[in-house]
Amino acid sequence: MMERMAIGILTSGGDCPGLNAVIRAAVLKGQITDGTEFVGFRGGWRGVVEGDTMPLGRKEVMGISKQGGTILGTSRTNPFEEGGGPDRVAEVMADAGVDALIAIGGEGTLAAAKRLTDAGVRIVGVPKTVDNDLSATDYTFGFDTAVQIATEAMDRLRTTGESHQRCMVAEVMGRHVGWIALHSGMASGAHAILIPERKTSMDEISAWVMSAHNRGRAPLIVVAEGFKLDTMDDAHSERGLDAFGRPRLGGIGDMLAPELEARTGIETRATTLGHIQRGGTPSAYDRVLATRYGLAAVDAVRDQRWGRMVALRGTQIVHVPFEDALGRLKTVPQSRYDEAAILFG
Ligand code: F6P
Hints:
The protein is of the alpha/beta class. 39% of the residues lie in helices and 16% in strands.
């Protein structure tokens, strides 16, 4: 067990519902159990590199677990760029009186955290991503909420689709993996689910649309933003690059809709759900998972488990090395796709 310490917290990368619940749980646990102090770094790694801090006590975290977003703000800043690096991070932590960091983020955040930890910075990670694509954890918080939002949207698309006898295409998030598409598509009874893991032809999609239409249904097609037709090498992108130089995705639904309409003769509309899936109140499941992660992260700091992140295995919260979460995405297994595909068309 360490001496009583001060812990810095940052949220980094794309936001998602549940971040505030992690922050609240960590602060409350530290304060209640041994008076540990907390410092918030604003705007992800940017705040750590620039020394942009805010107080983080019981007052600041009061009632926030139900709030979407993050009270700390976030960014996709790389801590090794723009004057950063381990020496700078250590200097800022010392100035802020912080002994260790809890970094809440996805793959990019955890990769940076690993490099910093390898250089001697004391960091514990908390996994976060709506995409649910991080290995070494069964679920990330934010995913359940995103699936719920997408499912509600599809229920609505179905009633308007049925009124007009249209084919409705719903595009959801999922850069490399189709978890949101698979779960929301299954929940809403979609007639096809198109995911990045499984290239598909226009012929196959059109056949599913026609089959549903011929039974008198208004076809609903769910497509993940990272889906590729069998004729495409890369995911559809028309919005330039993000801060990490990755193509900004979105628009595959709009691309598929006129093509489907031309092939099937069925009037077709596309809706892109976009950031609506990442906003607003977290589901009860995500609040509980995020709270458990926050509590466990404080234990991990006290046990000096640097370079490890908290993770969910079954119903247990465990600690795993950063490298277990990195380098390999948690993709939708073929068996899960095949299971869902029985009901397509
Ligand atoms: O990584 C989560 C995610 O929501 C992806 O599904 C999506 O491609 C990306 O973030 C969008 O990022 P931004 O918020 O920077 O537009």
